[in-house]
Amino acid sequence: MTKTPTRSELVGRATDLVDLIRKHAAWQEENRVLHEEVVRGLLDAGLLKLRVPTRYGGFESTTTTVVDVIAELARGDGSVGWSMNTWSIGFWLAGLFPDETQDEIFADPEVRIGNSVSPNGMAVPAEGGVILNGKWPFSTGILQSQWFVHSAVQAIDENTIVPVVIAVPAEDLTIVDDWHTVGLRGTGSVTTIADNLFVPDAHVVQLLPVLMENRIPSKLNADSVVWRAPFSPSAAALAGAVPLGMARAAREAFLERLPNRKITYTNYEKQNEAPLTHLQVADATVRIDQSAFHVRRAAERVDNKAAAGAPWTMAERAVARMDMGAATARAKEAVDILNNASGGSSIYTEVPMQRIERDAQTVSLHGLLHPDTNLELYGRVLCGLEPNTHLI
Fold it and tell me: Residue 1: is its pLDDT beyond 70?
């Protein structure tokens, strides 16, 4: 069994990678995929083991550890942070499957597992498995993963369909090179297609028992604190760490340029002497701290309840989604303030601020992170209504 590094050690490893990540950030954006040196850095630092079961050499790290690592990597480049978030969730989803399926998936000690939570596929029963057809945009990680866990619906009979997750080798999916976007370009989140793909039963997991009852097919992971946590609150904490890291990067980039900047067409020869700048930096920093509060609260709640084996109320599940949305909103607001204060020279592509601004805008539009969507969901539950999604 692998000895799990401490939280501070793992976060320190992420911090040590920031310079390497930033070195390749422009290349990653231009080529729409992570640089191999960055992927190798993540592997060599052991950061892709955080959500791997210990019996396969993983760490089964706490949620607070994982979010702190993701935020640090996103401070280097939002695309790396988002990819790390996606792979971490992919490892968690793989841990749901029957143990013999996990033996197959984790046979490669450097395996990467992408995932998609949009149920854009249909699985039809066949002898010994299902026939999967579907088309999934936003397939983050597929270009550098060996496995992918896709969301779909499965036809049980003529009148019943249920949500499922399906593990498939990445090589069995058709890739559509359509990731031409304004932000998070380095994630390589292309579209994938399954065309009459046979998937054995052991690679299919019904999702509702997992989401609402924490019943998983894996016998060896059933007692793990990591897999005792419900999917949506756990994934929400991880995803919220990405915009937080971006906002920290924006503040760092702004302050790095600040001593050498003036405010054009004013008498301020030094921007750092202007009261407006003081207000802008303070306002952005407060919002970054607020974003960090929501991420930390969400992560600690997951860890504490999982350790205690405590059940989740619907209100607590809704708060987890709200925390993710609020973390995203406050982080994006901070980036907007700092970008606005950066002046016309920040539009040049060699200035990191313009990329951070586009990445923050992009991640805030994600269907699960969108602040308005999460506020509405939270409000529905507060008003005594049922949630309008099973991802809670």
Answer: no
DSSP for 318-338, please give it.
Answer: HHHHHHHHHHHHHHHHHHHHH
Cβ contact 294:330 at 8 Å? yes
Which residue do the tokens 């699960």 mark?
Answer: 368
Q: Distance of CA 227 to CAs 64, 104, 172, 233, Å?
A: 15, 19, 27, 12
Phi, psi dihedrals of residue 231, rounded to the nearest 5° = -60, -55
Q: Could you tell me if 156 and 100 are in contact, meaning their C-beta atoms sit under 8 angstroms apart?
A: no
Instruction: Give the per-residue pLDDT at 335.
Output: 98
Residue with tokens 């407006």: 276
254: pLDDT strictly greater than 80: yes
**Beta-bridge mates of residue 206:** 164
Write down the residue that tokens 């496995």 correspond to. 147
- Sign of the alpha-carbon torsion through 66, 69, 72, 77: negative
Q: Report the alpha-carbon distance of residue 234 to residue 58 in Å, rounded.
A: 18
DSSP helix/strand/coil, 129 = strand
Q: What domains can you pick out in the chain, each with its CATH number?
A: 7-110 (1.10.540.10), 113-207 (2.40.110.10), 229-382 (1.20.140.10)
Instruction: Check residue 369 and report its DSSP letter.
Output: T
24-40: pLDDT as tens digits? 999 999 999 999 999 99
How do residues 151-161 score in pLDDT, each as one tens digit?
A: 999 988 778 89
> Which phi-psi region, left, alpha or beta, contains residue 375 (left: φ > 0; alpha: ψ -120 to 50)?
alpha
CB 284 within 8 A of CB 251: yes
Which H helix or E strand runs over 161?
strand 160-169
Task: Quickly tell me which residue has 């049980």 as its tokens.
Answer: 156
Indicate the DSSP class of residue 130.
E
Q: Each residue of 270-303: pLDDT tens digit? A: 999 999 999 999 999 999 999 999 999 999 999 9
